User: Which sequence fits this backbone?
């Protein structure tokens, strides 16, 4: 698909999803996210406090940079890595198979509430879009394009 404006909208959408997920968790005590992570049963309990404190910042920063279009390829690669980690975590836990489990901790306790299957699809689509962004030739309406034009860089690669 060659529409740069469509990919601009998708870049902003995926960035918003990650920025919102991180920000909503940052507004709450990290103990809320720690409790959600414990339910997965795939993390060592000693690592959960670290994950609960660092991951929201990574999500918020990565999402914000993707929205702005700053270093879009590197940022999309980071978002791809996070989305892949989320998919592996969901697939590795028994929570995805359980019906009715909705508290993945993805958007905090008081943020958007999606079922685990819905969040799996959101992560899958985020991974697909962010992987594609890595290979785009141009990034309209992005800080990347603005900086290239301002410095006289003709090549958008």
Assistant:
């Amino acid at each position: 698909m060659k529409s740069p404006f469509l990919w601009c909208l998708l870049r902003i959408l995926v960035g918003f999803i990650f920025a919102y997920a991180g920000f909503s968790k940052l507004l709450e005590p990290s103990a809320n996210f720690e409790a959600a992570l414990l339910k997965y049963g795939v993390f060592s309990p000693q690592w959960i406090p670290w994950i609960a404190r660092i991951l929201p910042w990574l999500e918020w920063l990565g999402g914000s940079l993707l929205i702005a279009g700053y270093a879009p390829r590197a940022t999309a690669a980071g978002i791809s890595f996070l989305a892949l980690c989320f998919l592996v975590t969901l697939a590795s836990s028994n929570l995805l198979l359980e019906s009715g489990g909705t508290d993945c901790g993805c958007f905090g306790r008081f943020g958007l509430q999606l079922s685990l299957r819905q969040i799996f699809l959101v992560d899958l689509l985020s991974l697909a879009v962010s992987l594609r962004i890595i290979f785009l030739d141009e990034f309209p309406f992005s800080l990347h394009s603005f900086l290239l034009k301002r410095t006289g860089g003709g090549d958008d690669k």
User: Anything to note?
Assistant: Residues 4-149 form one domain. Residues 71 and 80 are 14 Å apart (CA to CA). The chain has one domain: 4-149.
